[in-house]
Write a structure and sequence with these properties.
This protein has 317 residues and is mainly α. The protein has eleven helices and five strands. The protein starts with a strand and ends in a 6-residue tail after the last helix.
Length: 317
């Protein structure tokens, strides 16, 4: 264990990510599973991005936001899974102090950005269904770009203060992080000083970042659902609901995981529970998002058929 002497303490310069060492006989199996999931996630999200950007039928604000979400999910898994794969394959579980906080910042940055981006997507659906006559003027290409840019900018700024505060703490005690990545909850158990102030700051920051977008998203969909229910024809209701059902599924998966992880009483959760459950929103959700949008969206399926038809004219889907 590398360290620097300071007074009577040895300041730690690297951590040990415990990962899934409680399952020593499953390391190879876990490597194969995570490797396949990683390849499927990258392939699915990149295919969705290419489909949106190469098919002019999908050059609309909704699919612009979707391509942003897919790009975000690609970065999300690339920040976590490759390091996990190295640990499983080689047994080297060490990560430098700088590498740990860089991973923590990227994870926080992309997580916050997803909260804001999902809110922007819900507002897009609100305008499209509740105010269709003014949709083109209200959700112009310029405005949709500004919404996406604001999501990324706010996502970058919002968690910065907490991560910087955590990185300045002295780490001179245990160096094992009981997680498969540098999660703030696990990291804050290691400093050799009182962390109550930063824990309060982290709680306030996480509440603002997650709850405000969540409330805005839910409010948008309450209006959307009420508007759909007022549509007289069954066909019209089904068509309107189909344009936002995939987004509702993604929002439910994302916020459902966050609520269980960060809103449920922490006294009932162990770090092992958090570690296993973290797989849902760090690994599983990014893999299923492109599947949900592809299978439940007729326009995306049609675009995929056109793309495959151009590459292999004799192929039928």
């Amino acid at each position: 264990m590398a360290g620097l002497e300071k007074g009577n303490h040895t300041l730690i310069t690297e951590f040990l990510l415990v990962g899934f060492e409680t399952f020593p006989k499953l390391q190879i199996t876990l490597f194969v599973v995570f490797f396949v999931i990683y390849l499927a996630t990258i392939a699915g999200n990149l295919l969705l991005i290419l489909t949106v950007w190469t098919d002019h039928h999908l050059h609309t604000p909704m699919y612009f936001f979707l391509s942003n979400l897919s790009f975000l999910e690609t970065g999300y898994v690339s920040n976590i899974i490759p390091r996990l794969l190295v640990s499983l394959a080689t047994g080297d579980k060490t990560i430098s102090l700088l590498g740990c906080f860089l991973q923590l910042f990227v994870f926080s940055f992309l997580g916050a950005t997803e909260c804001f981006l999902l809110t922007g997507m819900s507002y897009d659906r609100y305008l499209a269904i509740c105010d269709p006559l003014h949709y083109a003027s209200n959700m112009s290409p310029r405005f949709s770009f500004l919404l996406a840019f604001a999501s990324w900018a706010l996502g970058f700024v919002a968690p910065s203060f907490t991560v910087i505060m955590a990185s300045l703490l002295p780490f001179c005690g245990p160096h094992e992080i009981n997680h498969f990545f540098c999660d703030l909850t696990a990291v804050l158990k290691l400093p050799c000083t009182d962390t109550s102030l930063i824990e309060i700051a982290a709680l306030i920051s996480a509440s603002i970042i997650s709850m405000i977008p969540f409330v805005l998203t839910i409010t948008s969909y309450v209006y959307v659902i009420l508007t759909i229910l007022r549509i007289p024809s069954t066909t019209g209701r089904k068509k309107s609901f189909s344009t936002c059902s995939s987004h509702l599924i993604v929002v439910s998966m994302f916020y459902g995981a966050l609520i269980i992880m960060y809103v449920a009483p922490s006294g009932n959760q162990s770090l092992d529970f958090n570690k296993v459950f973290s797989l849902l929103y760090t690994v599983v959700t990014p893999m299923f998002n492109p599947i949900v949008y592809s299978l439940r969206n007729q326009e995306v399926k049609d675009a995929l058929r056109r793309a495959i038809g151009k590459m292999w004219p004799s192929t039928k889907m």
